[in-house]
């Protein structure tokens, strides 16, 4: 997930340098959405991992 966010971010930068504003904005938006999804999944897996390791 993080890989795809970085890929779309790089596409956005290249498109912005070449002057393609619409493509750049779309790629940056996709990169932001994928990064947020990555963060949410990371936090959920982190919390579930800590919960599963507790020994009473």
Key attributes of the depicted protein:
56 residues; mainly alpha; rod-shaped
Low-confidence stretches: none
Quickly count the domains. Answer: 1
- The gross shape turns out to be rod-shaped
Rg value: 16 Å
Overall pLDDT, averaged?
Answer: 84
Number of strands: 0
Largest β-sheet summary: none
Structural class: mainly alpha
Helix content: over 70%
- Distance from first to last alpha carbon: 35 Å
- Portion of residues in beta strands equals under 5%
Which sequence of SSEs, written as H and E, runs from N to C?
A: HH
Number of separate helices: 2
Describe this protein's structure.
The chain has one domain. It contains 2 helices and no strands. The model has no long low-confidence stretch (mean pLDDT 84). With 56 residues, the chain is mainly alpha-helical. The protein is rod-shaped, with a radius of gyration of 16 Å.
Sequence-ordered SSE layout with sheet pairings:
Layout: H1 2-18, H2 21-52
